[in-house]
Amino acid sequence: MNRSTVLLLVGIMIPGSNAYAGGEPAQVVIRDFAFTPQEVTVRRGESVRWENQEKRQYHSVWFETSGEPEPDYFFPEESYQRDFPESGSFPYRCGPHPEMTGVVHVLE
Ligand SMILES: [Cu+2]
Asked: What burial class does residue 12 get, using C-beta atoms within 10 Å of its C-beta: 0-12 exposed, 13-18 middle, 19+ buried?
């Protein structure tokens, strides 16, 4: 295993690291009423995928402060994915659970 392979694996395996994982969407896990990692960084044009890993609870990923309508809830074993075509920092929350918050940072 060469050095760049090792660095790539480290980037994939450490939640919250800023490493670029090579075209796959950045992953955020939802479990125990929390987004993990709470902050995620991608490059402009990349996407983020939220996976609901709760046992029963549905959630949503709502970019309320961007003026967007709340998207549909998604349930355990479902996911929600979206692209980020603009750079900036985009806070979001869960619609039914306002205490659940996260931020997507999009680099130029
Ligand atoms: Cu929720």
From this structure: middle
Domains belonging to the chain, first-starting first, are 3-107 (2.60.40.420)
- Determine the distance separating the centroid of ligand 1 and the alpha carbon of 59, expressed in angstroms: 4
Strands 101-107 and 47-52: unpaired
> Taking the model in full, what pTM does it have?
0.78
How many angstroms separate the alpha carbon of residue 94 from the centre of ligand 1?
A: 5
pLDDT along the chain (108 residues), means of 10: 44 46 86 98 97 98 96 97 97 98 98
Instruction: Tell how far the Cα of 29 is from the centroid of ligand 1, in angstroms.
Output: 12
